[in-house]
Amino acid sequence: MPQTNFIYCPLCATALIEKEIHQVRRSCCPECHYIYYPQPNLVVLAVIEHEGKLLLLKRNIEPAKGLWNFCGGYIEFGESPQVAVIREAKEEANIDIQIDKLIGIYGGEGGSNIVAAFQAQLPSHQLPNLAIQLEEASELGFFAWEELPTLAFPVHYEILRDWKAQQHA
Ligand SMILES: [Zn+2]
């Protein structure tokens, strides 16, 4: 399994070597004993609802350019998931959302992302602020359940299915 893209130690710049530690091969530094532990990326996203419709953004970047996804992105170091998802909605769509609850945690299983999906509301007074803020998206739209466009990643369908199931729970 690939351990790292590092060739040199990020701490002391010595060439890394492969070493078995507790039955796992890892990239290690023979000089300062730094060990590279691969870890997943932590991603947050918000299923944002307004009057029964869901807010989606059309991706303007690869992968999955032209398909739709939710507001979201990577958690910054030192940030809580809740703060991160509120920040992402502001950065991407210029809106202040209200988080209702966590829908679920997704990912792993060979992928590099772990996704925390939140259910959120767009208060009516925030509607006039709605605008694409970054070049990451080319369009914004509200969609009813019956008219959802093609979503970018399989995990989005998993999240939507759980979101829908929780509406009637
Ligand atoms: Zn080192």
TrEMBL record:
<dbReference type="GO" id="GO:0016787">
    <property type="term" value="F:hydrolase activity"/>
</dbReference>
<dbReference type="InterPro" id="IPR000086">
    <property type="entry name" value="NUDIX_hydrolase_dom"/>
</dbReference>
<dbReference type="InterPro" id="IPR015797">
    <property type="entry name" value="NUDIX_hydrolase-like_dom_sf"/>
</dbReference>
<keyword id="KW-0378">Hydrolase</keyword>
<dbReference type="InterPro" id="IPR020084">
    <property type="entry name" value="NUDIX_hydrolase_CS"/>
</dbReference>
<feature type="domain" description="Nudix hydrolase">
    <location>
        <begin position="37"/>
        <end position="166"/>
    </location>
</feature>
<dbReference type="Pfam" id="PF00293">
    <property type="entry name" value="NUDIX"/>
</dbReference>
<protein>
    <recommendedName>
        <fullName>Nudix hydrolase domain-containing protein</fullName>
    </recommendedName>
</protein>
